[in-house]
Design a protein that fits this description.
By secondary structure, the chain is mostly helical. It has helices at 3-79, 85-115, 118-129, 132-142, 148-154, 156-176. Helix content is 90%, strand content 0%. It starts with a helix and ends with a helix.
């Protein structure tokens, strides 16, 4: 074999080796890029699911708060009726509904607490706690306390303010996501 054949074979081997190495490097790069792209897509899907889950939790709490508010208006009207057997029976029935609705609002607040973020969770729990004065006033009304209607009505402002605070916190959290 002549020198030119050796050089030709050496160049061919070097070119072939370079091609194989370049193919391997390109394959690794493509694989890594595909993995990164899949991780980004999965992260985006998780973020969107969390966003929708939080939104649903926020809306459920807002809806339950409005339902509770409607019940509170009924109770306020009943507390202002003249003392009678009918008033006591109606108030007792409304008290039972209040307890049932409280369970729902408590559940909604706990779901928001679970879903987060902390500011929205804190606002949800604060909203839940504003139902306490209503409960106490109804119990006092059932016991014959004549000041219970005023105590009950005084609880409305903090209740609606807590709802506004929650909506603000939920909006801020939802817009950051």
């Amino acid at each position: 074999m002549g020198d030119s054949t050796v050089w030709t074979l050496a160049i061919a081997a070097l070119t072939g080796g370079t091609a194989v190495l370049a193919s391997w490097v390109a394959s690794r790069g493509s694989t890594q890029a595909a993995r990164i792209q899949a991780e980004i897509a999965a992260g985006a899907q998780r973020a969107e699911r969390l966003r929708e889950s939080r939104r649903t939790a926020y809306l459920d709490l807002i809806e339950q708060t409005h339902l509770m508010g409607e019940l509170y208006w009924e109770i306020s009207t009943t507390l202002r009726l003249a003392d009678s057997g009918d008033r006591a029976a109606a108030l007792a029935a409304l008290h039972d509904r209040e307890v049932a609705e409280y369970v729902k609002i408590r559940r909604c607040a706990r779901v928001v607490e679970l879903e987060g973020p902390p500011r929205a969770a804190d606002a949800a729990l604060a909203l839940q706690k504003t139902t306490g004065p209503f409960f106490a006033a109804v119990k006092a009304g059932l016991d014959g306390d004549r000041d219970s209607p005023d105590a009950f009505d005084a609880a409305f402002s903090p209740f609606w303010k807590a709802l506004e605070d929650f909506v603000d916190a939920a909006r801020a959290a939802h817009q950051r996501e």
